[in-house]
Amino acid sequence: MKTIEKKIPVLKRISLFLLFVVVYSCVFLDSKEYPETVTAGEMATFKMEIHVQPVGGAANGEKLIIALLVPNSWETETESVVTYTSSVDEGTQTMSVVPDNVLPVNGGGLTWGAHLKNRLGVGPNVLSDMKWVTFQSDKSYNIGGGEYVSASVTINTLVAEDNLRAKIGFFVNHSSDGLSTNPDNWKVQYSDCIDVLDGEGLVTDYCELQFNVVQPINATKNDFLTFSFQGDIAPNPLIEAQEVYLCAKAITDTGAEYEVCGMEAKAQMTKASAFSNSYALTLWPGQYFNIPANETLVRIEYSFTNEDGTVVIQDDTEPYAYVPKCN
Fold first, then answer.
1. What percent of the chain is helix, strand and coil (3-state, nearest 5)?
2. Percentage of residues in the chain with pLDDT exceeding 90?
3. What SS3 class is residue 279?
4. How far apart, in whole angstroms, are the C-alpha atoms of residue 38 and residue 18?
5. Taking residues 6-18, what's their average pLDDT?
6. CA 165/CA 162 separation, integer angstroms
7. CA distance 227 to 214
């Protein structure tokens, strides 16, 4: 277990804050537990211990709100069980996914997931291919001013089959606040990097910047892909290049290979700014590689080169690889 001061094996506990049911309150998440590693295709458990010290008058008809930031591949909306016990309840209570037609009070018409993504983004993660999944208590509460409330929340959710590393986000709020601008009424924190093991495909790293990024992670030959060379994260020989090109080869389900590599105009990457060493190129694989309509894209191998091909950035001695997870 891990606390702010102390680490204990298998699970980690970190300080976080949770708001329960009162409009004006001091909120505390005394501890949170999460696994250091999870197994692809199996359930993972997250726990939060919270208490709140209300300030001001009583609140009526309040619901507890929590949300998890998870990779898009996780089916957290449909494959989760969320429960809690509290000092004002008898027995275990349940939570359900907030329906899309139940909008946060301060969301400006956005759903909870969209409002959270708009305000909080993906936290310390470096890939945007993540989502906030929001739950509310099935029970409503009337809480008196000055009442002390504590609760223990347990989230069991199914981990997808993809190999990856990510920092899970944890958000807590109450229904009448709806993620306002007052941070006393909501809190958010993130786990350390959690590894998903024994899954399928290449490992996608949401935790740390890499020279190479391809988004979206789930795509087909009919989706637009953005290849990025993040040359600002560390010294590299392409910093001196006047132009940077994508050298890429598409491989299909028939074993056919389609390559675009060299000083072709369509392979030239766009520099982020005059003061940046990062470049990007957005392409449509089917058209870019001239993939026949009856073939399915299964893999793209790629590297980054300078204008004459004498400098190559790749994964050690091999090209980087992108494997679409949707066909």
1. 5, 45, 50
2. 71
3. strand
4. 24
5. 35
6. 10
7. 5
Closest CA to 14 of 39, 40, 33: 33
Structure tokens, 77:
């909306």
Rounding to the nearest 10 degrees, give the CA dihedral for residues 134, 136, 138, 139.
170
Q: Judge whether 168 and 206 are in contact, CB under 8 Å.
A: no
**Is residue 159 within 8 Å of residue 39, measured between CB atoms?**
yes
Please give the backbone phi and psi of residue 286, each rounded to the nearest 5 degrees, phi first.
-60, -45
Q: In this predicted model, what pLDDT tens digit does every residue of 76-108 receive, in sequence order?
A: 999 999 999 999 999 999 999 999 999 999 999
Query: Are 287 and 210 in contact, with CB atoms under 8 Å apart?
Result: no
Task: Say if residue 216 is preceded by a cis peptide, omega within 30 of 0.
Answer: yes
Model confidence pLDDT, tens digit, residues 140-159? 988 766 778 889 999 999 99
Contact 43, 159 (CB under 8 A): yes
What is the DSSP secondary-structure string of 288-309?
Answer: HTT--TT--EEEEEEEEE-TTS
Q: Which helix (H) or strand (E) holds 115?
A: helix 112-120
Single-letter amino acid code for the residue at 105 = V
Per-residue pLDDT tens digits for 193-230: 999 999 998 899 999 999 999 988 877 667 899 999 99
Within 10 Å of residue 302's Cβ, how many Cβ atoms? 23
Whether the predicted pLDDT of 313 surpasses 70: yes
